[in-house]
Specification:
Distance between the termini: 30 Å
Largest sheet: 6 strands, antiparallel
Strand content: 25-35%
Structural class: alpha+beta
């Protein structure tokens, strides 16, 4: 399926009352806006079309779900007070927009050279990124939001699946709660993992719904991790980075691994 066929399919699936759909030919993007709020979501058509070639209708269903839930979140009222348990940090790439489409800046923190921390209000099936307008309406200081968010991130469960490849051990965290990559901010969890790692500890967050920890014991392990991270990065709904991070003494350092096909 090419971009134009994907465009027509999404326009058909996403039409609705009080909704405006526009197409940006230069960027090959479709933008779906709520006329009630003036807010919307842009989706890149080439990436979805490419994903359709392998996942077929599932690729379209995911985008439709993402847009519908996102627009619903934008139209819903955010109330931080008395809903502190709904505040979480989310990891994004450094290229992710720093402000909403209306020019309102999001609340963010620097993390690594490849990643940045945003803060979100959980709304059940989706979440809304917290911006300066929300903080002003609620009269909340940034520090309070960040402290609560990190506390909540530490309370998230950390179930791991283990796989061994070429003498290396890889651990996968994939609960699909929207905050899998956010576990990289839980230093207690990372420190506990570091104690059980026998080789070199390497961490990857290729997209928001997975965190990979590698116990790298030989050179082949780096190659395997590089291929894993790239595969997840290209298939994730919210990609973050295909690079991995060394974890030493409580610090994350981005590393570039030149993968080889074998």
């Amino acid at each position: 399926m090419d971009s134009q066929k994907m465009r027509r399919e999404l326009e058909s699936r996403l039409q609705g009352e009080s909704r405006r759909i526009t197409y940006d030919r230069e960027k090959d993007q479709l933008r779906i806006e709520s006329e009630r709020t003036g807010k919307g979501i842009s989706v890149s058509l080439p990436g979805i079309a490419a994903k359709w070639n392998t996942e077929k209708e599932k690729a379209i269903d995911e985008v439709v779900y993402y847009v519908e839930e996102g627009l619903r979140a934008m139209e819903s009222q955010v109330q931080l007070t008395d809903h502190e348990k709904n505040i979480f940090p989310v990891i994004r790439s450094t290229s992710f927009p720093a402000e909403a489409a209306e020019g309102v800046p999001f609340l963010t923190d620097d993390h690594t050279a490849e990643t940045k921390v945003y803060y979100a209000y959980d709304m059940g099936n989706t979440y809304r990124l917290i911006d300066s307008r929300i903080m002003e309406q609620e009269a909340w200081e940034p520090g309070r939001i960040k402290e609560i968010a990190l506390f909540n991130a530490r309370s998230l469960p950390t179930p791991l699946k283990e796989d061994q490849v070429a003498g290396n051990i890889f651990y996968f965290l994939n609960t699909n709660d929207g905050y899998d990559a956010s576990r990289i901010l839980n230093k207690g969890f990372l420190n506990d993992m570091e104690k059980k790692i026998e080789g070199t500890m390497v961490v990857a967050v290729p997209h928001q719904d997975v965190l990979i920890i590698g116990d790298i014991r030989n050179d082949r392990g780096y190659d395997v991790l590089a291929q894993m991270a790239m595969s997840f990065f290209t298939s994730g709904r919210t990609p973050i980075t295909a690079l991995s991070f060394l974890y030493e003494n409580g610090e994350l350092e981005p590393i570039f691994i030149l993968g080889k096909n074998k």
